[in-house]
Amino acid sequence: MQIQFQEPRFFNRYRVLDGHRTVMALNLGGAEKDLFLMRPCVHPLYTPAGYPVTEMGAHNFPHHKGIWIGHAKVNGVNFFHDLVDAGWIVPIQVTSDADADSARISLSLEWRDRRGTVIATEIRSHVVRRIDNAHLLDMVSTLRASHGSLELEIDNHSWAGCRLIDALDQDDGGVMRDSEGREGADAINGHSVRWVDVRGSIGEHACGAALMAHPASAPVPTFARFYGTSLLNPTMYEPLTIADGDSWTFGTRVAAYDGSPTAADLQRWWSGAGRDPA
C-alpha cells in the first residue's frame, strides 16, 4: 500500500492506495471555510472492489462524519456536535508508514475547548490492511488526562462512530445485525455487543461494513439507528473518570467488505491477530 498526503489548501488529508485504487482517506480537519471540520475522521472507506461504505456529513445529523471519535460531555465540553460552543480535536503531529500489505497513520491530538484551552491529549493510530474480501481498519485511541482529571459523563453521543452510505442503511433496505443475533436498529440499540454489521447492495453489488469493538474493549453498549449510524459507547450507562496523569484506551475495527460474509467470518475478523493492543 502507499500513503499520499493531499495538499492542505484543497484536501488536508492522507489517502491510502492499494495500487491504483483508493482504500481510505484520513481527513485531519481544520477551521478553513472550505475544509471546516472540528475533528478528524476517516472518509471514504472502500471495499476491496472499490465500493464506498461511509457517509460524510449526511443530510440529517451532519456531525456524523464517516468513522470518527468524540464525546458530548468531557469536563462539560461537547466534542461530538458541530456547535458554536463545541470543542475541537486538533492534530498536532502526524506520522505514517506503509508496506506492501498495510498502511499506518498515527495522530497526536489536542482536545481544546472553544477558547483554545487544552482539556486532554490523545494518541490515535489507524492501521488498514486487506484480508480476504475485506479492508480492515483498526483505530486505537488513547486519551490522556494531561491537563487535569477527566470526567466523561453519561451520554448517548459517545465514542467510536460509523455512518454508512445511504444505499446500505436499514432505511434503504439494508440489514443490521449484531454479534448476539439481534436484528434491526431498535432491537440492537442500547445492548452490549462485540460488533454491529450492516449489509445491503450498491446497485447490484453486495457489500457492507461491520463496526467492531476491540476484544479488550468488548462487549460495549451500542447506539444504533436505522439511518446508518452505529456508535460503540462505553459511557452510555455509566461515566468514566480518568485521573490526572492517567490514560484510557479504546480500540475499534471497521471491516468494509464485498459479498456476504458469514457470522464465522465476522467472528474471525473481530478476534483476528494483526491489530494494535487496546
> Count of helices?
2
Order of helices and strands: EEEEEEEEEEEEHEEEEEEEH
Q: So, CATH architecture? A: Distorted Sandwich
How far apart are the first and last residues' alpha carbons, in Å? 24 Å
Output the CATH topology.
Beta-galactosidase, Chain A, domain 5
The unreliable regions are none
Mean of the pLDDT scores?
95
Helix/strand-derived category reads mainly beta
Estimate the strand proportion: over 45%
Helix content: under 10%
Number of strands: 19
> Radius of gyration from the CA trace?
17 Å
Spatially, the strands of the biggest sheet line up as 1-2-3-4-5-11-17-16-13
Largest sheet: 9 strands, antiparallel
CATH class: Mainly Beta
**Total domain modules:** 1
Shape: globular
Care to describe what's here?
The protein has a single domain, classed as Beta-galactosidase, Chain A, domain 5 (Distorted Sandwich). The protein is 5% helix and 47% strand. The protein is built from 2 helices and 19 strands. It has helices at 185-188, 263-271, and strands at residues 2-6, 13-18, 21-27, 41-45, 67-71, 88-98, 102-112, 118-131, 134-144, 150-152, 158-163, 175-178, 192-193, 195-202, 205-213, 220-224, 229-232, 240-242, 247-258. The chain is globular.
